[in-house]
Structures are given as C-alpha cells and as structure tokens.
Design a protein that fits this description.
The chain has helices at residues 6-33, 38-41, 54-63, 74-105, 111-120, 130-139, 146-150, 157-168, 172-180, 185-196, 198-213, 217-222, 231-240, 249-269, 271-279. The protein is mostly helical and 283 residues long. It has one domain: MetI-like fold, CATH 1.10.3720.10. The protein is globular, with a radius of gyration of 24 Å. The protein starts with 5 loop residues before the first helix and ends with a helix. The relative contact order is 0.15.
C-alpha cells in the first residue's frame, strides 16, 4: 500500500514541474523570439514576453523567400517533410508486418538465419552504410526525389522484431480456426493479424513518423535542389546560407515552431493509441 504523504506529493510535483520547465523553456524562448523583430531579439537581455510581430513573422516564414538563404518556401519544405515521413512510416509498417508474418507462420529453409540477418541490421545504422547507399541511389537516378529520400530508410529491423514477438503471442486456436474455415494465409493476415495489431501499428506510426520527419543527414546528402529540401534541412540553410548578411532569427524561430507542429499534432491525436500499443494488446 502506497503511503499518501502530502509532503511527498508536493516534492514529486515540484520535481515534475521543474523538469517540464527545463524542457519547455527553450521552446518558450523560440516562441517568444518568433513574435519580435530581428533587432529586438539581439538586444541584451532578450525579451521574455510576446511581441507584436507574430503574424508578420509567421507569414514571412510560410510564404517569404529569397532572404532566408533559400529560394523555396517553408510551405514547400513542410510538404516534402510530410510526404517523406508518410512514405517512410507506411512503408516501414507494411514491410515489417509482412516480413514478421512470413517468419512466424511460414516454414522455409534458413528461416531463423533470415530473421537474425534482419535483426543484425540494427548494428548498421544509416550513418555507417551511407556512402554505398548514396552510390546506389545516385546510380539509379533517384537524387532529388521522394523515392531517393524515403526508400533507403524504409526497412526496419526494430518494427519487424516487435511484430514478430507480437505474432508469437497470438493463440494457435486462431490459426486452426482460420484454417478450418478455409481462410488463405493472406486472408488470415488481413482479417485476423492486422486487426489484432492495430494498437501496435498506431504506436509504431507515431514513432516512425517522428523519425521520418526529423531526418537530417540523409536528406542533406540527397538533395541539391532547393525544391526538395525537407524543413529540417531548410532551417539549417536559413542559418548557414545567409553569408555575411545578418540572420533573421525571428523568421528562423517561427519556422522552427512551424516545423514542430505536425509531429506534435500526431502525438496528441494518437496519444491514446500510442500508449495502448506500448502497454496493451487486442487479443
């Protein structure tokens, strides 16, 4: 039985509030900076209260071009990031479901060798295999394309392992019942396994969408055309692409806030499914 000590409750809440403050303060500074002019931000001390230029800054961030170190708009960058994140997310989930289904429910030579070969790719992140991957993508003519930005990142050993472990917990009675009813393997996969896996799929969707949205190194190598910059690369270009000119930090901070909105919305809208997928099952 937990002892409900009021002082312990006060202490625990104080620690939580302190931790939230540490995490949220940089975000607060970015939000405040996005409401001031560039000259007001560089003052000492920096203003800690909202300014009166919020709408102008966000309009310039979304639709302005040229002086941000790029000739494309943030709307275009965010669309590229969204498209790449969705392709990576849907592709990872689909391939991982099918590969885990084959490993668990089919018998074929060297089945476990194939599984461990997939699992060992966890030891080879993108940064390790980036040069040969870039060479293959370049020779296929996929530079500055959605396919080039997303296809090399689709395979996921982690998702395959998670779905495999989940499929192993599915009762054998369901398999036998489906076989007696004359269901084909793909029918069993579509009508039984996928519905049972929906909470796990939702949890992986959130994780993989954020993973795809925050990609930086691979898009930095893959894109030479400004029309294919994702927003994370675009922010870096805004900071580093101005040359000797002063950086418009108010526009950069507004762009950073806008870049955080889609993954934040995904987490908020799918929070219930995300938590349920991590701690519960549908069996």
């Amino acid at each position: 039985m937990v002892d409900r000590n009021p002082w312990l409750n006060i202490f625990s809440h104080a620690v939580l509030i302190f931790g939230v403050a540490i995490v949220a303060f940089p975000l607060y500074l970015a939000l405040i900076a996005s409401t001031h002019t560039a000259s007001e931000i560089v003052q000492t001390p920096m203003p800690l209260l909202p300014g009166s230029h919020m709408w102008e800054n966000y309009k310039e961030a979304l639709l302005g071009s040229g002086k941000l170190g790029s000739n494309t708009t943030v709307v275009r960058m965010m669309w590229v990031s969204f498209a790449v994140a969705m392709i990576i997310t849907v592709g990872k989930i689909a391939i991982s479901l099918l590969s885990a289904f084959a490993i668990v429910y089919f018998r074929f030579p060297f089945k476990m060798v194939c599984f461990w070969a997939i699992f060992l790719t966890l030891m080879l992140p993108v940064e390790v295999r980036i040069l040969p991957t870039y060479k293959v993508v370049a020779e296929l003519g996929l530079l500055n394309s959605y396919a080039g930005l997303s296809l090399p990142l689709i395979a996921s050993a982690t998702a395959t392992f998670l779905f495999r472990q989940f499929f192993l917990t599915v009762p054998d009675e369901l398999v036998e019942a489906a076989r007696i009813d004359g269901a084909s393997p793909m029918r069993f996969f579509k009508d039984v396994l996928v519905p049972l896996s929906k909470t796990s799929i939702a949890a992986l969707f959130v994780i993989q969408f954020i993973y795809g949205w925050n990609q930086y190194l691979w898009p930095l190598l893959m894109t030479t055309s400004e029309d294919m910059y994702p927003v994370v690369v675009g922010i870096k270009r805004m900071v580093a692409g101005g040359g000797e000119a002063a950086i418009d930090w108010n526009i950069v901070m507004a762009t950073a806030i806008l870049a955080m909105l889609p993954p934040t919305l995904v987490v908020m809208l799918m929070q219930k499914w995300f938590v349920k997928g991590l701690v519960d099952t549908e069996k």
